[in-house]
Amino acid sequence: MLPLDQYLPFWNRLDPADQAAFTAAVHPRRFAQGTILHNGANDCIGLLLVTSGQLRVFTVSGEGHEITLYRLFDRDLCLFSASCILRGVTFDVTVEAERDTEVLHIPSELYHRLMERSAPVANFTNELMAERFSDVMWLMDQILNHKLDTRLAALLLEERALAGSDTLNVTHEQLAAHLGSAREVVTRMLRYFQSEGLVRLGRGSLTVTDEARLGVLSAASRR
Amino acid sequence: MLPLDQYLPFWNRLDPADQAAFTAAVHPRRFAQGTILHNGANDCIGLLLVTSGQLRVFTVSGEGHEITLYRLFDRDLCLFSASCILRGVTFDVTVEAERDTEVLHIPSELYHRLMERSAPVANFTNELMAERFSDVMWLMDQILNHKLDTRLAALLLEERALAGSDTLNVTHEQLAAHLGSAREVVTRMLRYFQSEGLVRLGRGSLTVTDEARLGVLSAASRR
Asked: I want to staple B31 with a disulfide (CB 3.0 to 4.6 A). Which of A23, B9, B97, B207 is the partner?
């Protein structure tokens, strides 16, 4: 028995027959690092509930560059690997296992059938889409305004030099105050830096894990 | 009696009591050109079903520039003016009446109550969000890859010079073939040009309505 109620907030609002159908259809799968799990509109393998590892969702620009839209970690649910069941979606993304990744695979047809008649499942889907939409809006804001990331990178390197240590005892509030920004904005950028492997966030501390790439980022602010 | 069944695909799947509650709560409203209907997370006036006119939904970059995300026309439903009822949305947008605009106003609480227990309403909401998400993905692609719009603008001006007329008898397929692109991609860009007032699309024809701005756009390709 899989701990689906731990992952899916609508679980207790499914009737027993739907819970049984779900449990019968959902299976664990492993993907080796580098595997492409979903590529464009033709794939529709299903929803993937990450139980360990890391998925990267990206798009490819007209010039062939990959743009990372967001990453999914433990307990995140990958919706766009089932994009065929989502009416109104007209864009394609690619999903890659960025590390060895374990997922629970929820077949598209099963999920679609539940979503069509269950308001809790449909609203959960809506919330997932809104979260990913929010990720992309944030990214677009970053693309249009390259300043905060470069300024934060420069500030972290400065703090690191002052501390004489990779580990900084500095709060997000303090960093935000230095940058004239809001704490929420800085926290979100630090989480992005963490997902990119530039820093590691702890409770009340922050460790620089890739000084070189922070240096490249901070240099961009002087262009 | 408002013709709500003409606008809302879930109408016939509501029970009579919900239809009555809907009809009682929904009222026409007019907004003069230039009115800001919704501005950020604090507003939550409700969903706005456009019956005439034009709404513009935009965000403001860190540097203070407005970026138009999409426009809404007759029969479109503005969802983000009710963003408070959408769990998972963490970005803010502004909605402006770009022309004198008439809408049917659907109060947030009413819609939220229906969405929570009706799968058809929840799935319709999901589809709306997916369409707007698709608009933004398309825009991001444009921002990352400025080529097609400039090339299409240059091609339209060239065709106009050849025809000796603002009205061009050219199909989207022919334009796509000239640009080495797909018809769908060119059609979407032409619709965007139309919403920006650069061209007017007819059946089997296309009229250039703002030669000067097309000229500015086409010049960008030579940077």
From this structure: B97
